[in-house]
Amino acid sequence: MQKTFTEKEAEDFLEKENFKVIERIFAKNKSELKSVANKINFPWAMKISSKKIIHKKKVGGVILNIKNLEEAEKNFEMFSRMENFEQVIIQPMIGGEELILGLKKTPEFNLVIMIGAGGSSVEEKKDVSFRVCPIKEDDAREMIKELKIYNLIEKKVDINLIEQNLLKISKLVEKYPNIKELDINPLMVNSTDANIVDARISFE
């Protein structure tokens, strides 16, 4: 039976597997936002969280650059009126380059690993590279260099951090061969850090 994790479940799972996931706090009611403001500085990203909502952006469930508590409360009210609302995820806004990393089970090759230019317009960019799992360090480096954006990002980010995340994903398959699909979008990378900002995972 297939099991699809919510963002919270997927990120908790990846964190336990030693991936670095961005700081995040969950709030089920508006009154909790004040205490969140004492822990996470503005600006915030705020996202709807629900077992029944897989594609948050398609339902308008992602708001970025929230600058103060008043804005946060207004957005919380909007989310709370949405169908299947359960809670919100609050994250700090961080700088960097957006990449998409993932896995997909295929009939021809079993599990295939991918990397690409990430963010909300990933389908339009069509800048991706694929390999059959498992991969080694040379494969990871080649995948990154095959991207059209490589020349734009190589001096802005730590390429080794991207490689490490690709290799971790490849090793994840060895430990959990029943993974059907993994989608990390974005992995936010800069010169010192690489954080998973959003993730989705399903198992067979």
Report on this model:
It is a single chain. The model has no long low-confidence stretch (mean pLDDT about 95). The chain has helices at about 5-15, 35, 70-80, 120-125, 135-145, 150-155, 160-175, and strands spanning about 5, 25, 45-50, 60-65, 85-90, 95-105, 110-115, 130, 180-190, 195, 200-204. The chain has two domains: about 25-90, ATP-grasp fold, A domain (Dna Ligase, domain 1), CATH 3.30.1490.20; about 95-204, ATP-grasp fold, B domain (D-amino Acid Aminotransferase, Chain A, domain 1, 2-Layer Sandwich), CATH 3.30.470.20. It starts with a strand and ends with a strand. The chain has about 200 residues and is α+β, with helices and mostly antiparallel strands.
Reconstruct the topology from this structure.
Blueprint lengths: L2 E2 L2 H10 L8 E3 L5 H5 L6 E6 L12 E5 L2 H12 L6 E6 L4 E10 L3 E8 L4 H4 L2 E5 L4 H9 L4 H4 L5 H17 L3 E11 L4 E3 L2 E5 L1
Antiparallel strand pairs: 1-11, 2-5, 3-4, 3-5, 6-7, 6-9, 7-8, 9-10, 9-11
Helix pairs in contact: 5-7
The CATH superfamily of the largest domain appears as ATP-grasp fold, B domain
CATH topology of the largest domain: D-amino Acid Aminotransferase, Chain A, domain 1
In DSSP terms (H or I, runs of 4 or more residues), the helix count works out at 7
Number of domains: 2
The CATH level-2 architecture of the largest domain is identified as 2-Layer Sandwich
* Principal-axis shape: globular
Helix content: 25-40%
> What is the string of helix and strand elements?
EHEHEEHEEEHEHHHEEE
Radius of gyration: 17 Å
Q: What is the arithmetic mean of pLDDT?
A: 94
Main sheet?
7 strands, antiparallel
